[in-house]
C-alpha cells in the first residue's frame, strides 16, 4: 500500500474502518498528534478508560506487546499508542515483531514526533514502513499544509468566530508567523478576540501577530533591498533585542540572496518557476520565496549578486572567527549590501 495522507486518515476516522497498524510521521507536529489522538480515541470505541493504552519512547516493548494482544473490555476493539519509540537505542527487531503480531481486535498507532524519522534515507525507517504495509497497516506522512489550504482554514475559522479574514490578510499572517498549525490557531484566536467580530485586515495582522524568526529576518532583508540602511539597522537592533542568533540572521539573509541568484539564472535559461521549485526541492509552502526573489531582481544584475554573495561569505567567516563582535559584523554587512545595491560596486 502506498504512503497515505490526511484524507485517508480522515476517511478512516469518519467511517470507523481502521487498519490494524498506523505509522504516523512527517514535519507537522500539530497534525501528527491530532491524528494520533483522534485515531486512538475513535478506535477504542469511545471507551478510553478501559480500551486505550499509551506508551512513550522508553517503553518496555513487552508491555506494549501484551497490551496489543489483550482482548478489549466489552467492546469490538481497543487501541494502543506507541509514541516516539527510539529504535536506535531500543530493540528494532522486537518492534518489527510487535507490528507483525498486530490483530483485528486492536489498532496499534505508532507515531514519531520528537524522535527524528527519515522515511527517505533511513534504512530502519524503510524496513519499518515495509513491515507496516506488509501487515495491512497504513503509513501516513503528515506534512505542513499548502498555503491555499492554510488560507481556507484561517478564513473558515475566522468565519466561525464571527469575523472576516480576507485571503490577502491570511497569507500575510502565514508569511510572518510561519505554517505551524498550532501557532496559526493561537494567532487566529488572538486576532478574532482583538477585532471582536469585525474584519481582520493585513494592517491588524501586522500590528498584533508575533513574527517568527524567519519573518523578522525577511523584514531586515526587505529593508536592505529597499536601500534603507537606517531601517535595516533598526530591524537588526530589534533582532538582537529578541536574542535571535547572529548565525540564523546571516543564514536566512544568505538564503534570500541565493533565491535571487537561482531566479536570475533561471530567467536567463528560460526555466519556469515550477522547475526551480523541483530542482532545488522547495516545498509547496515555500514556493512564494521564488516569487519574492523574482520581484527583487529588478534592482540586480550578475555583478551585484556576485558581490553581495561574496560579502555574505566573508561575514560568515567573520562570525565563525573567535573574538569578533557579531553585531559589528552584521552591521558592516548591512551597510555593504546596501552600498552594492545602490552603487553597483563593493565598499572597501
What does this structure look like?
The protein has 348 residues and is α/β, with parallel strands linked by helices. The protein has three domains: 6-141, Rossmann fold; 147-208, Helicase, Ruva Protein, domain 3 (Orthogonal Bundle), CATH 1.10.8.60; 213-343, Zinc Finger, Delta Prime, domain 3, CATH 1.20.272.10. The chain is built from 17 helices and seven strands. The strands form two sheets. Strands 2-3-4-1-5 form a five-stranded parallel β-sheet, with helices on both faces. The longest helix is centred in the C-terminal third of the chain and has 24 residues, at 246-269. The chain starts with 5 loop residues before the first helix and ends in a 5-residue tail after the last helix.
- CATH architecture label of the largest domain: 3-Layer(aba) Sandwich
Beta content? 5-15%
- Give the assembly state of these chains: single chain
Helix percent band: 55-70%
Determine the N-to-C terminus distance: 61 Å
- Strand element count: 7
CATH level-four homologous superfamily name of the largest domain? P-loop containing nucleotide triphosphate hydrolases
**What does the average pLDDT come to?**
89
CATH level-3 fold name of the largest domain: Rossmann fold
**Largest sheet, strands/sense/barrel:** 5 strands, parallel
The assigned structural class equals alpha/beta
Features:
single chain; 348 residues; Rossmann fold; Helicase, Ruva Protein, domain 3; Zinc Finger, Delta Prime, domain 3; two-stranded parallel ribbon; 17 helices; 59% helix
Q: What are the SSEs and their pairings?
A:
Layout: H1 6-15, E1 21-25, H2 29-43, H3 48-51, E2 52-55, H4 61-68, E3 78-83, H5 92-100, E4 106-111, H6 123-134, E5 138-141, H7 147-160, E6 164-165, H8 167-177, H9 181-195, E7 199-200, H10 202-208, H11 213-225, H12 229-241, H13 246-269, H14 273-279, H15 288-296, H16 302-319, H17 326-343
Parallel strand pairs: 1-4, 1-5, 2-3, 3-4, 6-7
Amino acid at each position: 500500500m502506498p504512503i497515505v495522507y490526511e484524507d485517508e486518515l480522515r476517511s478512516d476516522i469518519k467511517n470507523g474502518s481502521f487498519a490494524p497498524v498506523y505509522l504516523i510521521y512527517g514535519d507537522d507536529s500539530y497534525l501528527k498528534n491530532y491524528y494520533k489522538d483522534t485515531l486512538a480515541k475513535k478506535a477504542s470505541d469511545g471507551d478510553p478508560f478501559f480500551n486505550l493504552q499509551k506508551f512513550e519512547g522508553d517503553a518496555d516493548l513487552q508491555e506494549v506487546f501484551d497490551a496489543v494482544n489483550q482482548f478489549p473490555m466489552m467492546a469490538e476493539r481497543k487501541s494502543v499508542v506507541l509514541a516516539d519509540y527510539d529504535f536506535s537505542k531500543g530493540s528494532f527487531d522486537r518492534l518489527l515483531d510487535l507490528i507483525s503480531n498486530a490483530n483485528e481486535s486492536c489498532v496499534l498507532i505508532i507515531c514519531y514526533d520528537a524522535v527524528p524519522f527519515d522515511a527517505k534515507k533511513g534504512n530502519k525507517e524503510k524496513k519499518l514502513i515495509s513491515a507496516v504495509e506488509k501487515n495491512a497497516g497504513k503509513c501516513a506522512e503528515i506534512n505542513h499544509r499548502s498555503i491555499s489550504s492554510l488560507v481556507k482554514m484561517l478564513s473558515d475559522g475566522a468565519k466561525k468566530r464571527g469575523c472576516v479574514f480576507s485571503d490577502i490578510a491570511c497569507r500575510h499572517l502565514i508569511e510572518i508567523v510561519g505554517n505551524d498549525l498550532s501557532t496559526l490557531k493561537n494567532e487566529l484566536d488572538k486576532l478574532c478576540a482583538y477585532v471582536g467580530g469585525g474584519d481582520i485586515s493585513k494592517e491588524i495582522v501586522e500590528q498584533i501577530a508575533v513574527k517568527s524568526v524567519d519573518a523578522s529576518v525577511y523584514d531586515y532583508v526587505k529593508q536592505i533591498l529597499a536601500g534603507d540602511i537606517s531601517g535595516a539597522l533598526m530591524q537588526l537592533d530589534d533582532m538582537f533585542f529578541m536574542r535571535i542568533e547572529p548565525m540564523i540572521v546571516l543564514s536566512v539573509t544568505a538564503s534570500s540572496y541565493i533565491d535571487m541568484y537561482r531566479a536570475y539564472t533561471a530567467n536567463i535559461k528560460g526555466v519556469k518557476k515550477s522547475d526551480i521549485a523541483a530542482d532545488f526541492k522547495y516545498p509547496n509552502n515555500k514556493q512564494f520565496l521564488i516569487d519574492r526573489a523574482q520581484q527583487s531582481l529588478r534592482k540586480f544584475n550578475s555583478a551585484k549578486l556576485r558581490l553581495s554573495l561574496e560579502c555574505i561569505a566573508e561575514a560568515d567567516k567573520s562570525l565563525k572567527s573567535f573574538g569578533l563582535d557579531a553585531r559589528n559584523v552584521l552591521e558592516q554587512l548591512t551597510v555593504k549590501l546596501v552600498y552594492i545595491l545602490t552603487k553597483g560596486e563593493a565598499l572597501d
